[in-house]
Write a structure and sequence with these properties.
Radius of gyration: 21 Å
Largest sheet: 4 strands, antiparallel
Strand order of the largest sheet: 2-1-3-4
Shape: elongated
Number of strands: 4
Number of helices: 9
Strand content: under 5%
Order of helices and strands: EEEHHHHHHHEHH
């Protein structure tokens, strides 16, 4: 069991099994390490900065956003570097959780029961592992969109690369860049809404821990794995 899945009765204090330990403190499960959370929030900050600077250059109606970056020229200079930082930061995060985001047969069943998901009828859904099907799809959407933004961004990065491509290729890259950005921004808005909708999710990414009740309700298969791992560790050799 990794540090990011340790069961604790308070951050940094181990306990053998959820539901046991000091009665004065509610047991918690460490879902995200400090490193995980720092990586996530650095990616999030870079996403906001890249999104705002990109929008400033996308249409004159929102050019006023360039004032946040020191004006038009500085916005144009900084945007590609912010984008590169975002891609690298997310790549590190993606590698951490790569193995948890492959779709399984239970995930397709979860998607077919999307009405039960929307109506909070989680008792009817298949047991969910560390991430549900919606989170896994978001993961792959982000991977594809950031890959698209990186490749098209290189083509339209006038200071270094645009001279190597024809005008037609640059224009097509700019169009695809905008499309990937639109899909990514829309997906992140859904991600933020879902995090607020499922109470306890924001706490998991700010403090790192979730309650056993939260884990049992939303990620029951993952919760069983954590309990099994904790019990295995607590058994004497």
């Amino acid at each position: 069991m990794t540090d990011s899945t340790r069961i604790t009765d308070a951050p940094g204090h181990s306990t053998g099994e959820a539901g046991q330990g000091s009665p004065r403190r509610r047991d918690t499960i460490l879902r995200y390490t400090t490193s995980d959370r720092t990586n996530h929030w650095l990616t999030a900050i870079a996403f906001v900065c890249a999104g705002l600077s990109g929008l400033a250059m996308f249409h004159p109606a929102v050019f006023w956003l360039s004032g946040l970056f020191g004006g038009g020229p500085w916005t144009r200079i900084l945007h590609p570097y912010i984008g590169l930082f975002m891609v690298v930061a997310f790549a590190l995060l993606a590698v951490r959780f790569w193995s948890h985001n492959f779709l399984q047969p239970a995930d397709w069943k979860w998607l077919r029961q999307i009405r039960d998901v929307v109506n909070n009828r989680e008792d009817r859904l298949p047991e969910v592992g560390r991430y549900n099907a919606g989170q896994k799809l978001l993961y792959w959407v982000i991977v594809v969109c950031l890959a698209g933004l990186l490749l098209t961004g290189i083509v339209i990065w006038r200071a270094y690369f645009s001279d190597y491509f024809s005008i037609r290729v640059v224009r097509l890259a700019a169009l695809l860049h905008a499309f990937c950005a639109f899909v990514l921004i829309t997906s992140i808005i859904v991600h933020i809404y879902s995090a607020i909708w499922v109470k306890g999710s924001v706490h998991a990414m700010t403090r790192g821990t979730v309650t056993p009740g939260w884990a049992w309700k939303h990620h029951r298969a993952w919760f069983r794995e954590m309990i099994h791992a904790a019990n295995s560790r607590s058994r004497p050799d």
